[in-house]
Amino acid sequence: MADCPPPRSGTGPVPPESVAADGAQRRLEGQPRDADAPMVGIARLAANSPCAESSRKSEQRPEYFLLPVRSILNKCDSNRVPFEWTINPYRGCEFACKYCYARYTHEYMELDGGEFEKKIFVKQNAAALLAQDVSRKYSYQRPGAEDGRPEHIAIGTATDPYQPAEREYRVTRDCLEELAKREGLSVSLITKSNQIVHDIDVFKQIAARSELSLNITVTTLRWRLARLLEPRAPRPDLRLDAVRQLREAGLRVGVSASPLIPGITDREGELEAVAGAAKEAGAEWFFSGVLFLMPSSAKQFLPFVREKFPKLAKQYEQWYAKNGYAPEEYRRKIAERVARIRLEHGFHARPFEELQRKVQSPQLSLGLNTAA
User: Fold this and answer.
1) How would you write the chain as a 3-class SS string?
2) Which of 180, 196, 223, 232 is the most buried (most CB within 10 A)?
3) 180 forms bridges with which residues in the sheet?
4) CA gap 325, 257 in Å, rounded
5) Nearest to 94 by CA among 277, 234, 257, 294
6) pLDDT in tens for each of the 372 residues of the chain?
7) What crossing angle do the helices spanning 236-248 and 200-209 adopt, rounded to 10°?
8) How far apart are alpha carbons 353 and 296 in whole angstroms?
9) Cα separations in angstroms, 202 against 72, 128, 166, 180, 208
10) What is the layout of strands, in order, in the sheet containing 152-155?
11) pTM for the whole structure
12) Are 264 and 98 in contact (CB under 8 A)?
């Protein structure tokens, strides 16, 4: 599915969300779109989506469109992630993070990945569709599982659910209110925005009846660097304050330092400083993984590196020109570093990982969890 993390190779075939996946695959392989081919599936829906009304007057704001989708709860079959379902209230994200892997999702709509922060699609009728989806698709017993755990729903895997659009369209809020009506779910959400605290009331309702975990992304404490990498996202200190407020409200929350960007956010002590600030803010868990670049993301990120970090350009060309992943040895060292950080600060594993480990290996210390 387009809302799930991409294939492990970074260059392999894209699983079909619809017949529009053929067009997306051509874009991923660098082939131009066939001008004579008719748009189909999500690409056709996007092309015919009407403009959404907005009270924002800034000339820098993105274009908003109303996307008439048929489903909000999307199945994720990727073996790279520990969840079965995703909810992404929007397509595209105004935060415009230079490294964002999810740019490829715009290619399903026959749009260039560079339009990811310029054309934001607001999914219509979210609450009604989610109510229908949970009733028809969701299982409160994971297939083949003996532990009685429900399937897991991850919110915000391909777009930030609390980007500025949420202030006007409230799609995330509508989805959360629908989930709050249910009992026995397993839900997580990830964001870079302190706007998440505006929904503490509904998070409490969900947590009272279901498993809920919240994640705030903080890639660096250096606010100037954060502004360069994540131009329109809230400052790191505001995100950490959101962690503090969520914990004070009795909610479970952790910090993600993903992606770790080679040569830029990986200097000695920097990841450790983020983890220390996360612990001080009350985070219960901490994780980080090395930058992954799909072709659509590399198209945006590599020119950025050449302009802003020219001394790193050659390294990035060598590492990412033909593969979406950094060298295995580098990734291994970072995983070991993250494991040491977790152990030093006494971080737990993420809740759904913790439950899985209790079933599979009850004697294994959670402090040694090295998963990124």
Assistant:
1) CCCCCCCCCCCCCCCCCCCCHHHHHHHHCCCCCCCCCCCCHHHHHHHCCCECCCCCCCCCCCEEEEECCCCCEEECCCCCCCCCEEECCEECCCCCCCCCHHHHHHHCCCCCHHHCCCEEEEECCHHHHHHHHHHHCCCCCCCCCCCCCCCEEEECCCCCCCCCHHHHHCHHHHHHHHHCCCCCCEEEEEECCHHHHHHHHHHHHHHHHCEEEEEEECCCCCHHHHHHHCCCCCCHHHHHHHHHHHHHCCCCEEEECCCECCCCCCCCCHHHHHHHHHHHHCCCEEECCECECCHHHHHHHHHHHHHHCHHHHHHHHHHHCCCCECCHHHHHHHHHHHHHHHHHHCCECCHHHHHHHHHHCCCCCHHHCCCC
2) 196
3) none
4) 17
5) 234
6) 556 665 444 333 333 333 344 444 444 444 444 555 566 678 888 887 889 888 888 878 899 999 999 999 998 876 667 788 999 999 999 999 999 999 999 998 999 999 999 999 999 999 999 999 999 999 887 776 666 789 999 999 999 999 999 999 999 999 999 999 999 999 999 999 999 999 999 999 999 999 999 999 999 999 999 999 999 999 999 999 999 999 999 999 999 999 999 999 999 999 999 999 999 999 999 999 999 998 999 999 999 999 999 999 999 999 998 889 999 999 999 999 999 999 999 998 777 665 554 434 333 222 333 344
7) 50
8) 30
9) 19, 17, 15, 7, 10
10) 73-75, 85-87, 152-155, 186-191, 211-217, 253-256, 286-287
11) 0.85
12) no
**φ, ψ (nearest 5 deg) of residue 74:** -110, 130
